[in-house]
């Protein structure tokens, strides 16, 4: 079975994992500071701090730009669903703005319609590595006196007019999860150019405990998980776990397990920082290489699939391959699975947050979430397997029996 995702594991990760207990606290703290400095330089921003996760960063960033309980925040109608309950638990009222049909990104025109005197901030997500129209969003926000937090969880390395995403808003966040561009077995980076926001973030983070164990544990469990995906049993397991009967329950359990790990909030560890430094150095080449493969996949797609317009606003970063399917995604999955290819559908791609929030007036998000599929594309996918994915899609769309 060709899995939809693969976790990159290198000998360097394992060596660092083994060396970690021997590294002093002081040296580890220096490693974290070096990573944060390198991140600041890479992005071209004034301040960057690494912490537990991207979602932790979103909470920190919103707090740092002055959003408090009772405030309204505009969010994309189509993005990661888990962010909704997390922000609601902080007493925020979330108002979704519909997305653009071609980029799948939050639409500045729909944001303008949603701003009220209660609006305090806009969460501007660069979805699936495609820059959103951040210049228009920031212009609008300035006019209306609203803060902008950029969600760059998928967008590390993307730029608009030669400037990296994450440097436009009042603050921005990045994710360092295992499936992201700089994977460090969890973690996130929050950045800002605003001195007051930086001070608030530093104050919140400096009181957290140092503890490298959760990150080391997470690395180990990721390797076990990946070992299973790469084993011959995965074909059988995937057919059961992603079947009509179990897919939803399995996804809930999987996400819940990862959330429990994220609920612990120690400081970013030296182990993660050392991996982060190395991967940050490889990032531009990775984006180039995988963006080329993204284009090749887009060209090879059978007729009827709709590709995301990733480069209308700026230069995209690579994050997964998502397209709109010409046939119902669950039917497509059934057919390609018979041909040994695993794909993501429905909320395994992203969530229709508008509906989760009780809004029925975001038709583009509804239609994209009904048709979106996540296809296998990553480092380590051989040319032979790449062609097998394309062939499976062609046969599945033609409805050939197997
Ligand atoms: C759009 C978006 N924002 C934020 C996050 C949160 O990042 P993390 O998983 O590091 O908490 C994710 C995670 O995938 C995401 O997809």
At CATH level 2, the architecture is 3-Layer(aba) Sandwich
Cofactors and ligands present?
pyridoxal-5'-phosphate
Q: CATH homologous superfamily - what is it?
A: Type I PLP-dependent aspartate aminotransferase-like (Major domain)
Radius of gyration: 21 Å
Question: Number of folding domains?
Answer: 1
Please count the beta strands (DSSP E, at least 2 residues each).
15
Strand proportion:
5-15%
Q: What distance lies between the first and last C-alpha atoms, to the nearest angstrom?
A: 16 Å
Poorly predicted runs: none
Major beta sheet, strand line-up: 1-10-9-6-5-2-4
Q: Helix- and strand-based class?
A: alpha/beta
Number of helices: 15
The biggest beta sheet reads: 7 strands, mixed
Overall pLDDT score? 94
